[in-house]
From TrEMBL:
Pfam families reported for this sequence: DLH
MF (Gene Ontology): hydrolase activity
Name of the protein in its database record: Carboxymethylenebutenolidase
Signal peptide: none
InterPro entries on file: AB_hydrolase_fold (IPR029058), Dienelactn_hydro (IPR002925), Dienelactone_hydrolase-like (IPR051049)
Domain Dienelactone hydrolase: 14-244
Top-level lineage group: Bacteria
Alphabetical list of SUPFAM superfamilies matching this protein: alpha/beta-Hydrolases
């Protein structure tokens, strides 16, 4: 069960989708699901619905609304195609921490005003580049975000990156879960260790798990790196996290 909505934001209008279980009765705990760099597409609609079916109202925004409405990647294409990658990289470059912050405020306003969402704390999920978004939103709204999760997150803790979310994790009050691919060239072991150290030093309740044999993008069914076993584990861990926090 899903419907499209439009969310007023400082930088324009965010096209987004709200997913609920087929047997939804009344408002449900809210979960924000950020897509990976490939943005809105069928495998993420399926993923959002699977989360919703566990008893949540899931808000999935188009992170590239400033540049395009709806899907950005043509059917049958992917980030790996040389005629698609430059566009996605360009659009992703517009998502500065400041831009993300403005979008977070708009998404929370939507949650507060749309009938599907219950009052109270929320969960946030990110994939690939948006693993950092989930952390940053948890840090900016510590009293609102009860759980933040990132899967096959990219470039979370580069040593020379002043915009790394590791610099703001001290504000997080909710729980954090990371499911990392143990063969992820976009998040090498030293970055995982650096982020874990920052979270531990800040006293954040967090869990880091390596998905053995998995590669970057293991949850995306349209990627050659898709790993059915790792994807199933990701849904299991996510279900547990949301059940325990929301």
């Amino acid at each position: 069960m899903s419907r499209a909505i439009e969310i007023p934001a400082v930088d324009g209008t965010i096209d987004a989708h709200v997913f609920t279980p087929g047997n939804a009765d009344g408002p449900l705990p809210a979960v924000v699901l950020f897509t990976d760099i490939g943005a809105l597409r069928p495998c993420y609609h399926e993923k959002a619905q699977q989360v919703a079916d566990n008893g949540y109202a899931v808000l999935m925004p188009n992170v590239y609304y400033r540049d395009a409405n709806g899907p950005v990647v043509p059917e049958g294409k992917s980030f790996r195609d040389p005629d698609v990658r430059p566009t996605l990289v360009e659009y992703a470059g517009h998502l500065t921490p400041e831009a993300q912050s403005r979008d977070f405020a708009a998404l929370l306003d939507a949650i507060d005003n749309e009938a599907e969402f219950a009052d109270g704390k929320i969960g946030v999920i990110g994939y690939c580049m948006t693993g950092a978004f989930a952390l940053r939103m948890a840090a900016e709204y510590p009293g609102r975000v009860a759980a933040a999760a990132g899967f096959h997150s990219a470039r979370l803790a580069e040593a020379d990156d002043p915009n790394s979310p590791m610099h703001v994790v001290g504000n997080i009050e909710g729980r954090v879960y990371f499911g990392h691919a143990d063969k992820d060239e976009l998040l090498p072991p030293e970055q995982i260790a650096r982020m874990d150290e920052a979270l531990a030093a800040a006293g954040v309740h967090f869990t880091t798990e390596l998905y053995k044999g998995a590669a970057h993008g293991f949850t995306a069914k349209d990627a050659p790196s898709y790993d059915a076993a790792a994807d199933a584990l990701h849904h299991k861990r996510l279900s547990m996290l949301l059940e325990e926090t929301l």
